[in-house]
Amino acid sequence: MSSFYKIASYTVPSVEVTSYTFSNIPQTYTDLCVIWSGRGSRASFYSDNGIKINGNLTANSLNYQAHRYYNGSPAAYSGTDGQYPSGYDNGGTSYQYQFSNVRYYFFNYTSSDYKTVLVETTCEQDSATAIFNLNEASMLKNTAPITSLVAFGSTNNYTLRQNSVITLYGIKDS
Amino acid sequence: MAIRSLKTGSFSRSLLVGNSFYDPYAYKSIATVSVGSGGSSSVEFTSIPSTYTHLQVRGFHKNSAGAGSEYVAVAQFNGDTAANYSYHYLRGNGSSASSGASLTDAYVLAGYQNSSATSQMGFGGFVLDILDYTNTNKYKTVRSIAGADVNGSGIIDFYSGTWRSTSAITSIKFYYTASNFVQYSRFALYGIRSA
What ipTM did this prediction achieve? Predict the structure, then answer.
């Protein structure tokens, strides 16, 4: 039976931010999990979010498989040129109370293998088309242990809105 | 036996010797409901404590309508039966993907289930997450992964849903819109802390 520990948590204050860094992540857990309730400053109904691993933002460092529900239709797609695992927050101005529901899961983060990351994103509102749900499985082509994670509102510098909550948990196997 | 605090020098009969209790675990069981032999039309968690940041429900359920009957367990918050909910789903059935939505409904989707003639089969499972359930600056958004396999056929679903209310969630009710939960259906509520 595994145990689930909070490592650190951040709530975006009234002065919005572009990112928040979880640094000096303890190397004593088996897996990491980030739970994210967010809203971004992008004008569209959705706003990108992502997590830089060890500060890295290098092209072609991530392969991914995904399926999504976007613009009223399901689709499956993949990529080999990713920079970071990514999800989506709610955006725009019409639904100020609408926040995303996102989970990032980082497996075996202290190992010297490539890292597997799962992302589950829901960006929900009462629209037939203006929603974005995504499941993504990524492989980070880097063998370094994960020691820092930067949660950010896309490379376009979208800010994270007030009351967004991002929490990092450690999961320890017995 | 008295315990002496190295910090203050005081004696106590408690191992805490004046320190407040510290629980390192962020994921705690709040309550579990197991449906009994008579079945049940619904399962409800009430008086949910506000001391956590997020909630998770793990459901294991089956309907009473008999072989081949498919139902989705739904969730309703704080007894609100009005059309204040929306949901979307992404579905796979082994050969194709589909999707759908309801924008003004009385519930969000929680978990798919497909009954079988064999009593051992047909239970569906889901894991439903509700984030920031006490925050009065947010509508409440849920995410659920759910599905069931009936010996070779089945469904895997991914749901999103919103309850358009800024009220803190204090109760959650699960039910089928036209069937009952059978015996051995089980719903477990967990709290996840971030403070």
Answer: 0.91
